[in-house]
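Collaborator request, handled under Task 6.
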Amino acid sequence: MRPTTKDLAREAGVSRATVDRVLNGRPGVQEKTVRAVQDAIARLGFERNLSAANLAKRRVYRFDFLLPREGGEFLAELETQIRDHGQQMRADSVEIRARRVLERDPHQVVATLAALSPDEVDGVAIMASESPQVRDATLRLNERGIHVVQFISGQHGVRPFDFVGIDNHAAGATAARLLGGFCNRLQGHVLVITESMNSLDSAERRLGFDHVLNTRFAELAALPTLETHGDPARARTIVAAAFRNFPDIVGVYVMSSEAAAPLDAILRHDRHAQLTIIAHERTESTLDLLERDRLDALIVQNPGHVVRSAVRLLKSRCDGRQPLASQDDIRIEILLKENIGGARVRQTLSDRQRPAP
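Structure tokens returned to the collaborator:
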């Protein structure tokens, strides 16, 4: 049988109340007593039943997903997944909220993070563009006892913050491999477009894209990145200018997660049928374009998986446990017209779960 706190108290020669104080990190216990309890834990192989302890204390985990105010289909899909997973997790005393509160201005993001209190929230998943100000504000969250996950946009594998999302450098490299292969030795320029290069995911994707394109496909030359800043009118203007100035464009890479505006601008050009076009993320419009041969491939991450992983990571950090890395490795998936059947079914099910406008 598993050792209990009663066994632990007997082995350490202390009361069960003292064991409870040590396990919960409460003050008022002498250092030598703490060591005695820790030694007893090691000898007995004691593993705390966190679910039972949380139930006894009526503990509730409170997690917020802090999302950009501006966004389209991909952000709406993330909100749906957050809401659905939140409904499932209520039975496990986990409260999850999605809040569209972050502006493009890093100083506004800092002000929003500074207003968070550990009395109101235990952990946050932050989807924000990288900046020194935001990094400093995130560190201060940790110092105040609020656990942090960088969500979708952040730096892969860098502590003290957990990151949930695909390896964006690898995603950009994958895009170049696909685009170069589909172009089949055509010579010309490649148009690269995103919302903003201030977003770390776009910067890393561009690095990976350039590395593979330059080393494997010498016949293709990537143009400087065009930034739409989320403005459809700007997207149409800069794309039209690019096609005027570079009539030999043979491929397009849309790096941003919200692809609707740049894709609309590109597909307005009379040469779009001759272009190889690679984009990111599975939404209703990108699946439709892929199905109608307007896109050649989509590079995607499973939105349900990233939401569930963020919650698991936050809960593990709250419990002082090491997360299981294999559970939270978000795979890079490639969708083509020939394999979108399953993706279309998942998208349809997700749409049915959305509330009516």
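The cover message to the collaborator said: "The longest helix spans residues 73-89. Residues 250 and 275 are 5 Å apart (CA to CA). Please let us know whether this matches your experimental observations."
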